[in-house]
Amino acid sequence: MTQNVYDNPEFFEGYSQLGRSVEGLDGAAEWASIRALLPDLKGKRVVDLGCGFGWFCRFAREEGAESVLGLDVSENMLARAKATSDPAIVYAKADLEVLELPEASFDLVYSSLAFHYLKDLEALLARVHAALVTGGQLVFSIEHPIYMAPAHPGWSKDIDGRATWPVNGYLDEGPRTTDWLAKGVVKQHRTLGTLINILIGLGFALQHVEEWGPSHEQVAAHPEWAEERERPMFLLVSARK
C-alpha cells in the first residue's frame, strides 16, 4: 500500500500551511512550468492521480474538461477536495500501488508530486499507458532524484557552507527516509535514467523533460529560495501514448 503520510495529523497540519495548500496552484512555484506542458483541456477526460485538495481537478474543469476523476489515498485530502462540489468532478479514495483504470478512457493523466512515494511505479505507469486513448498525454511532476539524494550531513563543506559533493548514494535506488513535516516519511529514489527508461520501455513518446528549479526572478521575489538553485527540486515530464 502507498504510504499515507497525509493522514498523519502532524504531517497534514504542516502540509495544510504550505503555500500550495493555501493558495492553490498559483502557490506552487513550479506551476507555470507544468501548465505550459498541458494540452488544451476543452472536452477532455482527465484523471488526477494523487489529487490532494482538488486544485488541479477544479482547474481542469475551469479550462473546459468534460469530466475529471480525482484519486487520492488520503481521507484528509479528499475531505478538503469534496468541500467544493462540481457534478463533473468525481473524487474517490484509491491506492495508486494497486489502482486499476479502465482502458482507453482518458485524454490526460496528471499527477503532481505523488509518484515518488510508489514502490512499483512501473506497474502503475503500465496501467496509465493502457488507460490513455491513442494520442493521450501523461503530465507529471516528482521530487527530483538529485533532490531526494542530498549530500550527507557529515561531509565537508566549502567556504559558503555548501556540501562539496552534491548527492548521497545517487545510484543506490530504493527507499529514502526523511523528516519533512513529520518523522519517517519514505520516498522511493530512482535515478533519472531509470525513470526515463521505464517510460520509453512502456511505449510512451517523451515530449518534454524539465529539471526544475526556481528562476532568478523567483529567487529575487523569494530570497529564501536561493539555495534551491544549487540542485533541481522537481522533475517535470510530459509524454504521449
Strand-helix topology:
Blueprint: H1 9-15, H2 19-22, H3 31-35, E1 45-49, H4 55-62, E2 67-72, H5 75-82, E3 89-93, E4 106-112, H6 121-131, E5 132-143, H7 145-148, E6 174-178, E7 185-189, H8 192-201, E8 205-212, H9 216-221, E9 234-240
Parallel strand pairs: 1-2, 1-4, 2-3, 4-5
Antiparallel strand pairs: 5-9, 6-7, 8-9
Describe this structure in words.
Mean pLDDT is 86; it is low at 154-164. The chain has a single domain (5-145, 184-240), classed as Rossmann fold. Strands 3-2-1-4-5-9-8 form a 7-stranded mixed beta sheet, sandwiched between helices. Strands 6-7 form a two-stranded antiparallel ribbon. With 241 residues, it is α/β, with parallel strands linked by helices. 26% of the residues lie in helices and 25% in strands. The protein has 9 helices and 9 strands.
Q: What do the pLDDT scores average to?
A: 86
What assembly state would you assign to the polypeptide chains in this entry? single chain
* Shape category: globular
Please write the string of helix (H) and strand (E) elements.
Answer: HHHEHEHEEHEHEEHEHE
Gyration radius over CA: 18 Å
Largest sheet: 7 strands, mixed
> Which sequence of strands runs across the widest sheet?
3-2-1-4-5-9-8
Helical content band: 25-40%
The separation of the N and C termini measures 27 Å
The helix/strand class is: alpha/beta
Query: What proportion of the residues form beta strands (DSSP E)?
Result: 15-25%
CATH class membership: Alpha Beta
Looking at the overall shape, the CATH architecture is 3-Layer(aba) Sandwich
